[in-house]
Amino acid sequence: MPAGVQPQCTTDSDCDTSAGEVCEMGACWGGPPSGQFAAIVVPPNNRADLISTEIPQQPLASDGDLATLAVGGAITLSGRVEAYCASPAMCDDTTIAATITVTRPSRFPGGPGFTAVATAADGIARGTDSFSIAVPPTQAGDGPFTITIVPAGTGAAPANNGTTSPAELAPPMRITLTAQTDMELGTLTLGNESSPVITGTLMDAQQAPLTKYRVVALGRLGDANAPVSEVSTVDYTTTGAYSITLSGCSDGSCADIVGTISIEASPYDPSVTAPALYAGAIQPASGSQTLSQPANMGDPIQLAIPIEGLDPDGAVTAVGGAHVIVTSTYQPGVSLGVAVLQADVETGSDGLANVSLLDGDAFGSDYTIVVIPPTGSSLGVYDKPLALDGSPIRLPARLALSGTVVDGDGKGIGNISVTAAPSLRYQWSLDGTGQSLLAEIPLASSSTDASGEFTIYVDPILESVWAYYDLEFTVPDGIQAADWTDTEIAIPRDPTNTALALGKEPIPATAFMHGDLVDAAGLPLAAGELRIFQIPTDDSLCTMVANPPASCTIPAQLLGHGTSGADGTVQVALPRSPEAP
After folding, report:
1. Pick from 485, 482, 535: which is nearest to 54 by CA?
2. Which residues, other chains included, contact 577 with Cβ-Cβ below 8 Å and sequence gap of 6+?
3. What is the pLDDT of residue 336?
C-alpha cells in the first residue's frame, strides 16, 4: 500500500471470500467475473524491438494473480515500391511514395486484430529498401497478413506544383503472406504490362468535354466482402479525356478485383457547381466508358439556409458549427449513369449554411438536407427533403438521458465520464445509408456532477429506426473501481417523449487483478499496457437485426486495462458482473 494509505485488509476474512478474493499487501485481490477472456500486451513506443502480442485465452485466477505475461519480439517486412514502366529506357528505377498498411485477423473471436501503417519513401535508388514495418511473427492457426499499398497523391485535387503524383502513375496493390522471421519482400511493382486500362471522355449535355475532374475506379480488392475502395490510378483530366489503370496481377502474385467496378468522376474546381458522375456494373477489363452530365441541370443558385433550434428557455437560436450536407441524385434508368450533386459545408456563428446548388429539373426537385449538430448539442439530427426557398431548418430536440452514479452505500460519485455509444443492435438495424449517417454523428458524452448526476442528449430515432445505446462509464484516477458499460438501453418508442430517467447507476463490484509484464528476453517491461477482453459467446444478435455485416462477428468487449510500473508489475480493475457482450 502507498505510504499513508489505510490498508484495505489484513486477512482474507476482510475481503469478499465468497467471490474468491484474497488479502495481499493490504489489498483485496481477485474474485474475477466469469466467462471467456483474452488479452493483448502492448509495448511502450520506445521499444521498437517488441510488438503487440495477443493472448487468445487468458485465465483469470480467483486470487487475482495473472502471473507473467510476455510481449513478443517483432519481425520486420521490408521492401521497395516502384511503378511499372513500359519503356525501360525512360525509367529511373527509383521508388515512389506510398502508404503501406498491414493487417491480420485477431487470434481470438471478435478481437481488434493487428494493424500497422508505414510510409514508403520516394526516390530511393535500386539496391535500397524504401520501407520497413514491424509485425508479429505468424504462429500456428494465424491468418495471413494482408498488405495494402496505396500510392501517394490521391487527393481531391491535383498537386499545385505541376508534377505527376505516384497515384497517377500506379494503381494500388494488395498481397497476402505469412512470415515467421524477418522477410525481404524485394521490389513491389504496382501495375504491369497486362494491367487493364479504361479510357473514356467526360461530356456535358451538349457533348462538350468536361475539364478539371478527378477520375478513379471503385471496387473490391481480393474479397467480395471487402469494403469498396479505389482500385485504379487517379486521373485529373484537364481535357475531358481520361485513362486509368486497374489493380491486379496477371500472374496471381497479388489480389485481383472481385466483381464489377464503377467509375467515379468528381469535379475539383471549387468555383464550378457541377455533379459527380458515376458509371457502374463495369467489368474490370480494358475498355472505354463515356460519362455525361444530364440535361436540364439549370443554373447555379446560392442559398444561405438558416439552421436553428430552441434553446432551453424556448427561444429560437442560430446553430453554429453544424455539419450540413445537401444532396440530389439524378438516375434516369437502371443501366444508365448516375449524377450526384452535393454541397458539404459547416454553419458559421450566424447559423447560415451557404451552399451552391443547381435549380434545373434534373436536380431541383430531389434535394435532401442532412444537418448534424455540433458535439454536445441538445439538438438532434435533421434528415429531410429540401425546398430551394431558403426557409429555416428547425432542428428537433434530442432526448435527455439522465441518471445518478452511486457507490455501494448509495452515495453519488462525481467526475465519472459518461458516453452514449450506439449499440450493435441499433447500428445493424439501419441500412447502409443509415449506418454511414450514424457514423458521422459525434458520440454524446458528459460527466457526473458532485452529486453523481448526469444528463446526456441522444437522437431517439434515425431513418425510422428507434435507437439503442450503450452507456460507457469511465472512472478517473483515484477512484478504486473499474470502468463499466450499461448495454442495450432502449429509447421509448414515443415521438413525444423528450426525456428518459434511468435512476441510479451503481458502480459495479470490482475485481482487482495483478500480473507481471516481461519483454521477449524475460526482463521486466516498464510502461507496457495490458488489455483484458471478454470473448462473446452469444451471436444470436446476428439473426435479430435487419442488416448484420456479411461476416457477422460480435466484437470482444474491452473490460479493463492497466500500465506496468518500472518493475513490470501491472494492475487491472475489472467489473465483476459485466454485461454479456
Report:
1. 535
2. 33, 508, 509
3. 64
Q: Report how far residue 478's alpha carbon sits from residue 415's, in angstroms, rounded to the nearest whole number.
A: 11
pTM above 0.70, yes or no: yes
The amino acid at residue 421 is A
547-581 pLDDT, tens digit per residue, is 999 889 999 999 999 999 999 999 999 998 644 33
CA distance 581 to 560: 14
**Three-state secondary structure string covering 372-433:** ECCCCCCECCEEEECCCCCCCEECCECEEEEEEEECCCCCECCCCEEEEEECHHHHHHCCHH
Selection from 130, 116, 119 nearest residue 82 by Cα: 130
Interatomic CA distance for residues 17 and 21, integer angstroms: 5
C-alpha to C-alpha distance for 340 and 440, rounded to whole angstroms? 20
Amino acid (one-letter) located at 409: D
351 closest CA partner among 394, 392, 318, 304: 318
Cα–Cα distance for residue pair 104/145, rounded to 1 Å? 5
| CB-based contact 574:514 (threshold 8 Å) | no
Q: What is the pLDDT of residues 395-420, one digit of tens each?
A: 999 999 999 999 989 999 999 999 99
Task: Measure Cα distances from 279 to 321, 334, 361, 433, 554 in Å.
Answer: 35, 11, 21, 20, 35
Here the cell at position 23 is 488479502
pLDDT tens for 141-184 read 999 999 999 999 999 999 877 789 999 999 999 999 999 999 99
Burial annotation 184-213 (CB, 10 A radius, 16+ → b, else e): ebeebbbbbeebbebebbbbeeeeeebebb
Given strand 75-83, what is the order of strands in its sheet? 131-135, 75-83, 183-190
- Kindly give the parts of the chain with pLDDT less than 70: 1-5, 89-90, 333-336, 577-581
